[in-house]
């Protein structure tokens, strides 16, 4: 069974498949999914970020109007944005989000995504948490730099 966050994310992405931007009202979406508006905030703030290829504009009042647009950067600019957004430490879930975004936007193949998932997984980086997150950030940055060159 999918989590409500995954369902909301999929719904918004389906709307964006038909349009270059979508305007939603936080309260209306919360009512549609029978959840609290803060759940909508969570999904938007974690899954529709610049790093994931989106621009979000939020307006106060009136039910919480939100406009979400896909970023239209060329491949090199998009990868540069990702590289610059990765700090010195990166959790597995965040690395997987970056890789998933690259795949969803057609920047890498499914096979390449699976190889990248394996390279940055907790299983591969079998060491203490801080070193693991440091190594993961270095590995993903290096992969992205090499993708940008090709």
What does this structure look like?
The chain contains 7 helices and 3 strands; from the N terminus they run H-E-H-H-E-E-H-H-H-H. The protein is mainly alpha-helical. The chain has 2 domains: 4-70, 2-Layer Sandwich (Phenylalanyl-tRNA Synthetase, Chain B, domain 1); 75-149, Transcriptional repressor of class III stress genes, C-terminal domain (Non-ribosomal Peptide Synthetase Peptidyl Carrier Protein, Chain A, Orthogonal Bundle), CATH 1.10.1200. A 3-stranded antiparallel β-sheet has the order 1-3-2. Strand 2 and strand 3 form a beta hairpin. The longest helix is centred in the C-terminal third of the chain and has 21 residues, at 129-149. It is globular, with a radius of gyration of 17 Å. The chain starts with a helix and ends with a helix.
Question: Descriptors for this entry?
Answer:
single chain, three-stranded antiparallel β-sheet, mainly alpha, Phenylalanyl-tRNA Synthetase, Chain B, domain 1, 150 residues, 3 strands, Non-ribosomal Peptide Synthetase Peptidyl Carrier Protein, Chain A, 2 domains
């Amino acid at each position: 069974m999918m989590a409500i966050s995954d369902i909301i994310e999929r719904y918004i992405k389906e709307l964006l498949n038909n349009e270059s931007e979508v305007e939603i009202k936080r309260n209306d979406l919360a009512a549609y999914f029978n959840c609290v508006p803060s759940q909508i905030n969570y999904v938007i703030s974690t899954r529709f970020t610049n790093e994931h290829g989106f621009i979000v504009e939020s307006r106060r009042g009136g039910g919480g109007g939100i406009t979400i647009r896909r970023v239209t950067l060329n491949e090199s600019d998009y990868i540069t944005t990702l590289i610059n957004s990765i700090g010195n430490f990166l959790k597995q879930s965040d690395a997987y989000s970056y890789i998933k975004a690259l795949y969803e936007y057609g920047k890498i193949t499914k096979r390449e995504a699976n190889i990248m998932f394996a390279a940055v997984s907790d299983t591969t980086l079998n060491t203490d948490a801080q070193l693991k997150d440091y190594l993961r950030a270095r590995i993903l940055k290096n992969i992205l730099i090499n993708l940008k060159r090709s």
